[in-house]
Each structure stands twice: as structure tokens, then as C-alpha cells.
């Protein structure tokens, strides 16, 4: 497995830095985020050092993603007050990625005033059906290029 000696998550995976582990196997390590945005806030980290989602191959993606529902269900089952969950993966500095080892935030939700929120801007007025089709065509062309 790839390891980066300067990466805090690689150090956590290698137990060089302590963490509060909730799940671990040969592919991922899941541990409580120190910030605890809400109680139970867990990070799921692949044991292979990959910077972001763009560095995954299909096999690693399948292995990591297949474990997320199991961990999410365990978090939800651990507290009857949990009524939802945000699963977030930030990629790149502009997307608020602060540790450049891919990771998924599983953030339990207790209410709409539990200290966490997302804001999606509605830009629908700026997109005609034709403009949406142009954007979709550019993306599809890249998918077909692989």
C-alpha cells in the first residue's frame, strides 16, 4: 500500500498518531474526527495513500465505497437520536479539502440546528435546456474518451 511519510492520515493508519478507531480492515480505517462537528462524526480513510477522488482506480473505489454504508449504519444504530447523515468527500483546496489523503466525512444529523449545514445555491435561472445539454455533452465526451 502506498504510504506518504508526511501525511497525517498515513501516520494514523500506521498507528504513529493515536486515533479513536470505530472500524478497521485491510482496506480502510474509520476513526472519529477530532472536530466532532456532531457526535459520532467519523472519517473513513483508504489505507492506500491517494490524494483525492481523482486518484482512485475502479478497484479501490469499489472497495472503499462498499464499506461506507456498513459504517454509516453502525453510526446511526449507535444513537437513536440520529435522524440523518451527511456523507461528504472534499476534493481540492477550493472544495475545502484540508488533508490531501482522500477521506469521507460521515456526519450524523440530529436536527436541522445541530451545528452543521450545507448551502446549495439555486442557479437554475442561468441554465436553459440547451445550456444544460452543452454541459452534459462535454462531460459525456470525457466519459467516452476512457
Automatic annotation (TrEMBL):
The active site is at residue 103. Keywords: Hydrolase. InterPro entries: HINT, Histidine_triad_CS, Histidine_triad_HIT, HIT-like, HIT-like_sf. SUPFAM superfamilies: HIT-like. GO terms for molecular function: hydrolase activity. One of its GO terms (biological process) is nucleotide metabolic process. Residues 8-116 form the HIT domain. A motif (Histidine triad motif) lies at residues 101-105. CDD domains: HINT_subgroup (cd01277). PANTHER family: ADENOSINE 5'-MONOPHOSPHORAMIDASE HNT1, HIT FAMILY PROTEIN 1. This is Diadenosine polyphosphate hydrolase. It comes from Loigolactobacillus coryniformis subsp. coryniformis KCTC 3167 = DSM 20001.
Amino acid at each position: 500500500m502506498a504510504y506518504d511519510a508526511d501525511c497525517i492520515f498515513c501516520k494514523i493508519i500506521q498507528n504513529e498518531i493515536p486515533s479513536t478507531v470505530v472500524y478497521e480492515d485491510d482496506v480502510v480505517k474509520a476513526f472519529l474526527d477530532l472536530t466532532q462537528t456532531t457526535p459520532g462524526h467519523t472519517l473513513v480513510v483508504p489505507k492506500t495513500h491517494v490524494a483525492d477522488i481523482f486518484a482512485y482506480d475502479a478497484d479501490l473505489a469499489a472497495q472503499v465505497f462498499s464499506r461506507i454504508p456498513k459504517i454509516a449504519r453502525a453510526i446511526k444504530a449507535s444513537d437513536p437520536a440520529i435522524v440523518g447523515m451527511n456523507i461528504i468527500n472534499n476534493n481540492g483546496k477550493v472544495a475545502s479539502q484540508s488533508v490531501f489523503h482522500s477521506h469521507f466525512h460521515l456526519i450524523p444529523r440530529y436536527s436541522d440546528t445541530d451545528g452543521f449545514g450545507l448551502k446549495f445555491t439555486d442557479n437554475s435561472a442561468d441554465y436553459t435546456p440547451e445550456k444544460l445539454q452543452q454541459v452534459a455533452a462535454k462531460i459525456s465526451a470525457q466519459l467516452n474518451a476512457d
